[in-house]
Amino acid sequence: MGYFFFYFLIVWECIGGNSFHTGFKEGKGCLDKPVIKWKYGEYFGGGIVVGDVDKDGKNEIICGQERSGGGENILHVFNSEDLSILWTYPIGGVSYFSPALGDVDNDNVLDVVAVGQKGTVCSLYVLNGKNGKLIWGWERVKSSPVIGDVDKDGKVEVIVGEDDTLRILSGESGEVEYSFDLRVWKTPALADVNNDDTVEIIAGDVDFKVYSLNPITGKINWSFETGLMVLCSPTIGDVNKDDTLEVIVYSTDDTLYALNGIRGEVVWSFPLEGTGIIYTHPCIGDVNQDDTVEVICFSDSIVYCLNGVRGEEIWRYRSRGDNILITSAVIGDVEGDGECEIIFGLHGGSDSVIALNGKDGSVLWKLTNLDAGDCFPIIEDIDQDGWLEVVFGGTGPLVVLDKECPQEVEEEKEKRIEKVEIVVEQRELTIRFMTEKEGKVEVKLYDIIGREVGVILSKMFPKGEYTVKYDTSELLSGVYFLKFISPTFSLSRKLILLK
Q1: How far apart are CA 384 and CA 381, in angstroms?
Q2: Of 280 and 136, the one with more pLDDT
Q3: Burial class (CB within 10 angstroms; exposed 0-12, middle 13-18, buried 19+) of 372
Q4: Which is nearest to 332 in space by CA: 345, 344, 341?
Q5: CA atoms within 13 A on the CB side of 162
Q6: Does the CA dihedral 255-256-261-266 come out positive or negative?
Q7: Are the CB atoms for 191 and 200 separated by under 8 Å?
Q8: Distances, alpha carbon 153 to alpha carbons 9, 108, 176, 475, 479, in Å
Q9: pLDDT tens by residue, 362-419
Q10: Which secondary-structure segment (H or E) carries 136?
């Protein structure tokens, strides 16, 4: 079993799987065809997150369930091994809200931050991950939460939108630390978009604008005015290879914008076919293995794949009949063939979950009769067997797609008793590891969209214990993936750098 420590914070965010909202998941699966492993209940229409909230070394699945017939709506925490329930909490309506995970009260336990609706009022609940007890709450919110240490005080804040205000709340107490007079109704993103060693809050506004906000000074770094309301979460990534993060965001003026993260200027824009009401966020990743980031975006019944450098269309998928796209996609190699698939829900005449080929947009597989058209799918190794699974809900049941994968992975899993300790400090990464036999050890670092950003180690080692250090001072704040490969086993872990 490997050990993993972070100096700054540990957070997960459901929308897009991270605070950059990319929708990309590193790793591979073996789902060449969809196989349903588990199903549970019905009306799991909100976002889903995965993490070890009870510190037992195994993942839990966290999502909300709407009860039909006027019953109390419930947040569920499931054990990932068999979908047995760890704990539940009544939070009211949960549809289209996404929980977040983070140690908000600094007790070394992941807490669950969720939003529910009772009547016309939406409330935020911060719950202890082990037992589901309420730590604190906040009323009249409008967006799903995002979590991070945005003011560099070593403590986590919760950022959430209200009707007319964007709040930065203390993770420990729920008290207001700062407010912006903005109408943010979708989850903000967190990223150091202007390379100033400070995490900015990137948010869309009902009053037509996209903002980059400094949470320490309370100032607006820049704003960009679109033609109409911005009703989706922004996505962050370096899509045009200029070593600067871009902000990718929809507007209801039927346009997708790529904005320079430093100045907020338009890098490119792309006109969309549709009604102008888009609630999903775009996803980014190298889906066709051309060493360039692509942008996956939606409009009504169309999925577009765009070149990230120029914003030009590569391919499009158009659904048939009255089907429409109302949820976000996820990107990952779920088939295990070295190529990325794009998975999303299709709502309408035949609610379904679809996987597209990243190279050409052709349909690889399609699941119907599960009432999953308004699902928020995720890709995650929920059972920690080394292979990615697909999890989704909708108006139908909570579903886990998985199947028996090659036996070699199970053998690798048993060999992970070799200790690997990874410590992230402010300017340095330390890896301590033990090998069982002589051989080559490789340690590489990848960014949020799967591009290699550093080779930490690649050399022969005799059997023994070793310590390696790596300078991270030149890396931007954000989410990274570390791959460790030894002669007898391999592992992949997520790093979050917030400087």
Answers
A1: 5
A2: 136
A3: buried
A4: 341
A5: 17
A6: negative
A7: yes
A8: 11, 17, 15, 20, 20
A9: 999 988 877 766 678 899 988 888 889 999 887 778 889 988 776 544 444 444 444 6
A10: strand 134-139
Q: In what order do the strands lie in the sheet with 266-271?
A: 235-237, 246-251, 255-260, 266-271
* Spatial separation of the C-alpha atoms in residues 13 and 188, rounded to whole Å: 11
Token look-up 């577009």 returns 304
pLDDT at 304 over 90: yes
Instruction: State which H helix or E strand residue 412 sits in.
Output: helix 407-414
Q: Measure the CA–CA gap between 448 and 284, rounded to whole angstroms.
A: 9
Q: Are 144 and 115 in contact (CB under 8 A)?
A: yes
Question: How far is Cα 478 from Cα 428, in angstroms, rounded to an integer?
Answer: 15
pLDDT tens string 200-212: 999 999 999 999 9
Mean pLDDT of all residues belonging to the chain: 83
Cα gap 445→495, rounded to integer Å: 9
Q: Which helix (H) or strand (E) holds 50?
A: strand 48-51
- State residue 383 phi and psi, 5-degree precision: -100, 5
The closest of 95, 126, 94 to 113, measured between CA atoms, is 126
The tens digit of pLDDT for each residue in 219-262 reads 999 999 999 999 889 999 999 988 889 999 999 899 999 999 99
CA–CA dist 106, 249 (Å, integer): 33
Give the helix/strand (H/E) hosting 408.
helix 407-414
Burial (CB < 10 A; 0-12, 13-18, 19+), residue 432, is: middle
pLDDT in tens, 38-67: 888 888 877 889 988 988 888 899 988 876
Residue bearing the bigger pLDDT, 96 or 304: 304
| DSSP line for 437-456 | SSEEEEEEEEETTS-EEEEE
Say which amino acid occupies 134. L
CB neighbour list of residue 279: distance below 8 Å, 6 or more residues apart: 96, 186, 231, 232, 326
Entry pTM:
0.82
What's the one-letter identity of residue 384? Q
The closest alpha carbon to 237, from 12, 48, 424, 479, belongs to 479
First to last CA, the chain: 28
Residue 69 one-letter amino acid: G
Q: Give me the pLDDT at residue 416, please.
A: 47
